[in-house]
Amino acid sequence: MNRTTLLLSSVALLAVLQGCARHQTMYAWGDYDEALYVHYKNPQERERFVASLDAVIRDATQRGEKVPPGCLAEYGWALMEEGRHDDAIAYFQRERDQWPESRVLMDKMIRNAQQKRATNPSTPAKGPAGALKRS
Amino acid sequence: MSRHARVAVAAAILALLSACATAPRKDYSKFVAAQPRAILIVPVVNKSVNVDAADYFLSTLPIPVAERGYYVFPVNLVKRLLEDDGLADAALVHGADPGRLCALFGADAVLYVSIEKWEAKYLVVTTQVNVEFEYVLKDGKTGETLWTDHEAMAYQPDSNGGGIIGAMVAAAVTKASPNYMPLARQANWKALSFPGPGFPAGPYRPEYGKDLVADTRL
Question: What is the ipTM of this complex?
Answer without folding.
Answer: 0.82
